[in-house]
Amino acid sequence: VNEFAASADDVVDAHAHFMPPDLPDLASLNADHRWPLLIPDADGSSGRVMRGDSLFRVVRPACWDVGARIAELDQVGIGHQVISPIPVILTYWADPDRALEYCRHINDWLAHAVRQSGGRLSGLGTVPLQDTSRAISEMTRAVRELGLSGLEIGTEVNGMELDHDELRPFFRAADRLDVPLFVHATDGNCATRVAGEQVAFGLGMLTDIALAAAAFVFGGVLRECPNLRVCLSHGGGSFAWCFSRLNLFGKISGAAPSSPTPEELCRRLFVDSLVFDSDHMRQLVHRFGAGQIVIGSDHPFLSTDPAPQAIVDDAWSRGIITAEERTAIRSGNVSRFVTLQTAGPTDESPRVVNPP
Ligand SMILES: [Zn+2]
Fold first, then answer.
1. Each residue of 227-261: pLDDT tens digit?
2. What is the pTM assigned to this prediction?
3. How many of the other CB atoms lie within 10 Å of CB of 227?
4. How far does the centroid of ligand 1 lie from the alpha carbon of residue 114, in Å?
5. Ligand 1 centroid vs 146 CA: distance in angstroms?
6. CB of 120 within 8 A of CB of 80?
7. C-alpha of residue 251 to centroid of ligand 1, in Å
C-alpha cells in the first residue's frame, strides 16, 4: 500500500501515452523507415509521428509536453496519470543493440517527465523484449536507477506469443524484481483475417489483447510467476467473453491443472475500464473482480468527452457496482497494481514510496 493521497473524488488514469520529442533519428541513421520519430510543429500546436517519410499520426502537445498534459488532466478531473509509451515505439522487430539504445532514450525522457510533473505522473518504461538479457538489464535500470513504476509491453514479440519459452526469463525476472507490467494491444491488423482500419481497431485490437490474456492464464505464465502483476489494456479485449469456452477446452482435453484454477488466475489480472459500455463493465466485474479494474483513457489519443471515469460512474448509477467499488476503480485499485509516485517534500525529484 503506498501513500498516494487519493481522495474519494480523485481519479487515477492507468492507461495513457506519451512520446518523447527528442528521440534520435534512427530512421535516417540506419536508413530504416520503421523507426518512429516525433516532430513537434514549429508553432507547438501539434506534432507529427513519422516513420521515415510517412506520417503515422498527428498528436496533440499533451503527448510530449508535461504542462499541456497536466492542464488537460485538470479539465477532466484526473488527479494522477500513469503514462506509457505510444505503442508504435515498442520496436521488438529491431536489432537488439539499437532497440536498447532507443529504449534508454525513452526511459530517460520518461523519468524526466515524471520529475517535472510534481507528483501528477508515474511512468511505465519499455525494454527490448526481442533480447531477454538486454530486456532484464534495462528493466532493472528503469526501476532501480530511474525510479520508473513498471513497464509497458506489447502482446507478441517477433511472432512469439507471451507464453513462449524464450520470454519466460523476462517474466520470472519481473516477478522477482516486483516490476508490474502493463500489456498493451499492438497488432490489430494481424489478429483478424479481414483487413481495414475499422476491423483492426474494433475487433483486431480486442482479439490481440485477448491472446495475451490467454497466454498469461492458460499458457502458464501466471502459474510460473506467482507474484507477477499484470494489467491488460482495453479491458482485456474479448477475453472476458471468451474465457468460458477457453476453459471448457481445458476441461474437455484434461489439460487443465486444478490449482490454481483458471478462474483464480483471472482474478490476478488487472484490466482497464476502456470498454465504452457499462454493460461490458458488468462482465469485467464478473470475470476479474471489481478490485481488479482501473481507469483507462488512452489520453491524449481518444477524446476525454465524456471523461474516462464516466463509464464507472454510469456503472454505479445503474447498480452494476457499489459506491465502494466505484471509488476503488476510480482511484484505489491502481495502487495494488503499480506504485504511484509522489513529488518529494523538498525537491522536485520523484520519491518512490515502495522501492522494489
Ligand atoms: Zn493505449
1. 999 999 999 999 999 999 999 998 898 877 778 99
2. 0.94
3. 10
4. 19
5. 23
6. yes
7. 34
